[in-house]
Amino acid sequence: MSPFRLPPPASFSAAAVAMVVGFGGTVALIVQAGQALGASPAQIISMVTALCLGIGLPGAVLSWRLKMPVVLAWSTPGAALLAASTLGLGWSTAVGAFVIAGLLMVLTGLVPALGRLAERIPAAIASAMLAGVLLPFCLKLFLVFPADMALAAGLLAVFLIMRRVAAAWALPAVLVAAFAVLALRGQVGLPAGTGLFGELSPVMPVFDWKAAISLALPLYLVTLASQNLPGLVVLRAAGYAPPAGKLIFWGGMTSTILAPFGAHGVNLAAITAALCTGPEAHPDPERRWTVGVLYGLIYLVVALFAAPLAGLFIAMPTGALAVITGLALIAPLTGSLSAMMSVAEDREAAVLTFAATASGVALFGVGSAFWGLAVGFLALAARRWIKPRA
Among the four residues 12, 20, 170, 295, which has the most C-beta atoms within 10 Å? Predict the structure, then answer.
């Protein structure tokens, strides 16, 4: 049977829908992350271009070599973590943190013991940290209402209706509605000097211990726990036997190589992977790997035109950007809150982690994500090691 037989139309549509949901749903968050870290418009365009290249090329090659639909994505929770940073470390220092996080992922893929140790991180603590990172973005959604009631309420209504009618298309529909309103107001544009094609703008990484603790370590943990491990579960649920070490290794290696261009994290997809790994994408499980190849090729096309695509969000009014980002993170926040409360005995530690992270507190130049993890692990240790009095 020839491996080059043309896939059915459903495979093309599944790959395209997965790209639209993955890219359109969270590219606004990538832009906010770059802005929060002090990146220039050209560097944000480089960030989006590098991420799309990292998703497209390795994903297509791995799908072809492993004969399974390997769907990659950028780290959405990682981007939220970066966008929430208030430390003012600078773009070069942030890029240094990206390199460290990528190398940690490479080590996890190479050393099986590290992977097993990472899997033992309590899901409640990891989910609580993620929920604490995501909460401020969802709150900012409603803070836009006093300044722009029509836009915020209209986009919220579109989101709620589409979540009931066609959940996968809720965020793309929000984007279409947002750009329609902004176009009527004359608020759609591109930054000066934006070209047609994506560009890569490398910077020399600067390594700083505060960035390593505040950004690199939480970025590594949240990407592993919220993206890579669920991504492996999705592949296993579809009937495949993914080589966990190899997939985590190549995600980390891709992130490390592309970090100087702004790629904060490339990893296995979870939600969008479900669109490409089921029988709706291809009726033959042995041929379903072609969907992963198509998905990767589509992302390479997106990388080619990343400049105007990212530029639209860079030039977007901050209120509209906040509403789109907040709506995009409602589902991840819901999942994180549910997971952090799922184990009764870990709830107190999870709530402490959530509160510390969401507070945005920075002590000794170290951000709240680290302190959230620290207080959560401390609470777990106290519960397990200190026996209560009778």
Answer: 295
What's the sign of the alpha-carbon dihedral 30, 126, 106, 14? negative
Distance CA 133, CA 125 (A): 12
Angle of helix 330-340 relative to helix 318-328, nearest 10 degrees, comes to 40
Q: Which residue in 110, 306, 89 sits closest to 205, CA to CA?
A: 89
Which two three-digit tokens encode residue 191?
């930054």
Check: CB of residue 367 under 8 Å from CB of residue 214. Answer: yes
pTM of the model: 0.87
Q: Could you tell me which residues come within 8 angstroms of residue 204 by beta carbon, excluding any fewer than 6 positions away?
A: 92, 260
Label residue 130 by pLDDT band (50, 70, 90). confident
- 3-class DSSP assignment, residue 368: helix
In this structure, are residues 87 and 217 in contact, taking their beta carbons and an 8 Å threshold?
no
Task: List, for residues 262-314, the tens digit of each pLDDT value.
Answer: 999 999 997 788 888 888 888 888 899 999 999 999 999 999 999 999 999 99
According to DSSP, residue 38 is labeled: T
3-state secondary structure of 5: coil
Q: Which is nearest to 204 in space by CA: 165, 268, 253, 259?
A: 259
Q: Cα separation of 165 and 143, whole Å?
A: 27
Computed over its alpha carbons, how large is the radius of gyration of the chain?
20
Enumerate residues 6+ apart whose C-beta is below 8 A from 282.
7, 8, 10, 11, 14, 288, 290, 291
